[in-house]
Amino acid sequence: MAVAGIAWKVSHDAEIEAQVAAAEAAASAAAQREADRIAAEKAEEERRAEAERSMRRVSVTQIEASIKQMAEKHANSSIIDGPILSVSCSPVGGGSIDDLTEMTTIFECFAATKDNGDGTMSGYKYHATMNWSTGSFTYGFGAP
Predict the structure, then answer these.
(1) d(Cα 137, Cα 131) in Å, to the nearest integer?
(2) Long-range CB contact pairs, 119-125, < 8 A, 24+
């Protein structure tokens, strides 16, 4: 009888160990699936954020092109001296095109009209305000 009890105990313990191992494997697989899901969501979120940042960089190029057209009209009308060599715009007031929480960004733009020959340019200030929610912008002559 003692031998049968020992055999049953060994068999029972082996069955419990197998059940525990199966449960641990299932939990590990579930945890891995959850980690994979979270990683995929994070990668998709970063892909969307980078696409938004890329769109914002393109929008700044469009702002600069619009300001260049305005500055060229101003030069042709003798409001400012020309020719317009280049236009560059930068966010002001701590603004950033990379901060996707910002719904608007104010830009100070510089329309270069003269290369000073020493690595600097002379020209005129313009400004623009971009509404990232609507994708529209306004711009004008002078500092923001």
Answers:
(1) 6
(2) 121/85, 121/86, 123/84, 123/85, 124/71, 124/74, 124/80
Dihedral (C-alpha) 48, 50, 52, 54: value to the nearest 10 degrees?
-140
- What's the pLDDT tens digit per position in 96-139? 899 999 999 999 999 999 999 999 999 999 999 999 999 999 99
Domain boundaries, the chain: 2-141
Contact 97, 105 (CB under 8 A): yes
Q: How far, in Å, CA of 114 to CA of 17, rounded?
A: 83
The sheet with strand 86-91 has its strands ordered as: 86-91, 104-115, 121-131, 136-141
pTM over 0.85: no
CA dist 63 and 113 (Å) reads 18
CA distances from 59 to 11, 76, 89 (A): 72, 26, 11
- Contact between 127 and 67 (Cβ < 8 Å): no
CA distances 91 to 3, 5, 30, 137, Å, are 85, 81, 46, 13
